[in-house]
Each structure stands twice: as structure tokens, then as C-alpha cells.
Fold this protein.
Amino acid sequence: MGILREDVVVISPAGDSTEISVNCPDKTGLGCDLCRIILLFGLSIAKADFSTDGKWCYIVLWVVGKMNTSWDLLEKRLLEVCPPCLSTSGIDYYRPANPQPKQLDVFLLKFWCSCDRKGLLYDVTRVLFELELTIKRVKVSTTPDGKVMDLFFITDTRELLHTKERQGQTILHLETALGDILESCEIESAGPEITACSQGTSFLPSAITEDFFSLELPAQYPGGLLASNPISVTVDNTLRPSHTLIQVLCQDHKGLIYDVMRTLKDYNIQVSYGRFFPNQKGGCEFDLFIVQADGKKIFDRNKQNALCSRLRMELWRPLRVAVVSRGPDTELLVANPVELSGRGRPLVFHDITLALKNLNIHIFSVEIGRHMICDREWEVYRILLDEGDSYDVPRNKIEEGVRKILMGWE
């Protein structure tokens, strides 16, 4: 028996939101994969229900956000992460050819601009986002005469960037966005030798690595936001004979459900039933009935404490933001944890460039790389800010402005 392809993912209007229902075989981490795609499309999840019997799952997500969302494309991307549905009949049931994540070819997008301007990198990032081109690494530099050279290492979700037509489409969109300042633009396959030459410095300041990437919560939460919106994560093994209940109370932020689900996925924990909803106090609540990989409850106190501690940390600081000195210059550092599957957080560079554009700050150079710190892989964005602009805007205002955009609090 199987399920028709068009019934696996169904998207329909639901008042002020859009309802997305997913009906397919279950797998550990499916909720994370679905929420990541929704975050990638710039949408927010207002409410969610998850249920599974361990073999088959039914998930309903109510999303809000962009009016110009390509719902057909979103449905296609959601289908790609759903496990195959088997059938013994001749009917065309949904069955993707390869349910495993595929390593996409990396391409080098290289272009020169005659001058820099505020928002230039944001405009480029927005074009790549709209074309479903994923930024893997960026190298941006400004020459003494004011010209800008940008190297973007990208992958194509549509797997068409090797074709002249897709390359021409990309260059045309960039020409439209950048106008006369675009002097040259070319796209080529990025072989291992090119990729190796593009690597930035692997050095990070010791003061940053010690505190910036800490996985431990401070002894006392800082005042302000968390004082009025505490994070609560509790465990209860008494309500269900075969499930552990995790209850979460926290403030909403962009990608909230993704952050919870990626944490559970990294711990190889399956959600048998769950719901997410806003409460009357302006916060958000989760009720998650979970089991371990062996299908059993979590009785071990150490495992319970480790999971709760990690969830609190991920909800308190899903991204790390700091403005520091780099010699005589000012550098913005942003870092996010990488999933064990190797996927980074979507739209981080897009949001960083948007925030700096809003603050009227030029970007002098950019390095994006991955680092193993505290036994965990991090994606680190190092943005060297224009000397004049960084003096005009206080560092705490830069950090606050970037964090607000990243967390969806603008």
C-alpha cells in the first residue's frame, strides 16, 4: 500500500496563515528537515502538530510570512526530504529516487564592481537566495582604488548551474540588481585546487573561542530579555507509560522550532507526538513526547540533564554575535552550530548583510569558514567593517542590530 504523490505534502490557505500538512513514513529528524526548508523560504511557523506511530507520521504546520512565496517550489523541496512511500501496485505513488542528501557541485561566482556601496552584498545575497543558489563560502575584498572583488562559492539546489542558460540567468539577475557598477561577472566549476586557494585564515582569537563558543549556560541569566522571558525546559516521565515528556517555555525567535528539532535530531531522539503554540503571555510553548533511538523513555538522569541543558542553550543563543577588534579595525563575528548532517543554518549571511545595510555600514571584507571548537562544528562569519562607518555606529548598536535581524525581532 502507498500514498499518492500529491497527498504527501498538501499546502492550503487557513485564514491568516497557510496550512502545510505532511503525511509520509517517519524518520528521525524529519521535523528538523521540514522546519529548515520553511526557514530557508523565509517563513515563520505560527503553530505546529506532530504525531507518529513510529512508522508513519502526520505533521501539520501553520506558517506565516512572505506574500510572494512560491508554494509549488516549497512543496517540491518538502517532498525531497520525505522518506519514500512503497507500493506494490502500478499506481504512481511517491517514491524519490534517492532519499539520501546529495552532495552538490560547487561553483565559483566571481565578479568585479567599479566601486563599493552600502547594501551591495545584501543585493547580491538576495538575488542568489531568490534563484535557490546556496552560499557555501564568500571571499570579499576591496582594493586600494575602491574597486570590489567578490568570490562566492555556491551550490545550485536545481542542479542546473553547469548549463549556459542557468549561468546566463544568474548573471542577468545580478546585472539588474547591481546596475552600472558591475564591471565583469563569470561562473565556473570550483575544482579542489580553487576551493583550497579560497580558504581564509583558520585562526580565531583565543578570547573569542573561550567564551563565544561556550556550550554552558552562565550561572545566572543576563538581565533584560531573559529576565522577563525566562526559558524553561522540564522533563516528566509520569504521564505516558512509553514516552518522556519534554515541556519548553520560551520567547519566540526566527527558526525557533528548527532549533528545537535540530537539537533533538543531533541527539537521535524521535518525537512521537508534539505540539507548538503561542501562549497568552506572548511566549511560546512546546509539549514533546519523545523516545530514544531504541524506542524507550529517557530514564537516565545524566541524559535528561544533558538534553535539557543543550535545549536551554540553543534557545538562549542559537547564534553567537560579537563585535571585536581586529588590530586597528572592527570585525563583526557571527557563528552558528552546524547540524551533525553537515547542514548549516539557512539565510544567516542574508540577514547579516540586511542588518548592516539598515545600519548604513559598508563591508570591507568577508570570510566564511567552518571550525571545530568544543567538539562541535561551527559556521563562522567574519566581516571586517568599513573603518569610517564602524566609528560612527557604537559597537553595541551594531551587535544589537545584527542580532535583532537574525532572531526576527525587527
About this structure: The first strand starts at residue 9 and ends at 14. The two ends are 47 Å apart (CA to CA). The longest helix spans residues 301-316. The CA atoms of residues 94 and 137 lie 34 Å apart.
